[in-house]
Write a structure and sequence with these properties.
Layout (H helix, E strand, L loop, with lengths): L6 E6 L2 H12 L2 E6 L2 E5 L5 E6 L8 E5 L2 H13 L4 E2 L18 E5 L5 E5 L7
Parallel strand pairs: 1-4, 5-8
Antiparallel strand pairs: 2-3, 3-4, 6-7, 7-8
Length: 126
């Protein structure tokens, strides 16, 4: 039996605006508002269910592996939205990408401060 992650709740200040940002940046599909959630289809098995949370909430990190072509497309949209980006989670504003593991990677924050990472190669775990 294969176990897959089905959905995760992402706390945000504006659920629809957040879902629409991810839809624009990554090309994911905004499905609908469903109760307190704005549902975003990430792939065939996973949805991000954006839910409004008042006050402070923990900022999360989400990493997405993409092809080289998708990297170029997504990176263009990051710049179109004037989102600050950087080469590492400790350097989110240096305006650079990294070239780790013979690929490319970049980090940026969404509207709510969640750190998003885009990579073209898996990390090599020694």
């Amino acid at each position: 039996m294969e176990i897959t992650l089905n959905h995760t709740i992402v706390y945000v200040k504006d659920n629809v605006a957040s879902a629409k940002l991810y839809e624009y940046i990554f090309g994911f599909e905004f499905v609908k508002e469903w109760g307190p959630f704005a549902v975003l289809k990430v792939n065939e098995t996973l949805t991000f269910d954006f839910m409004i949370k008042e006050g402070k909430f923990t900022k999360m990190h989400y990493a997405f592996k993409v092809s080289e072509k998708e990297f170029d497309e997504v990176f263009t949209r990051i710049k179109e939205k004037d989102l600050e980006f950087g080469s590492s989670p400790m350097n989110l504003r240096d305006g650079e990408i990294n070239r780790k593991y013979n690929g490319r990677g970049v980090y940026f924050r969404d509207y709510d401060g969640h750190v998003l990472e885009m990579i073209t190669q898996d990390y090599i775990l020694d």
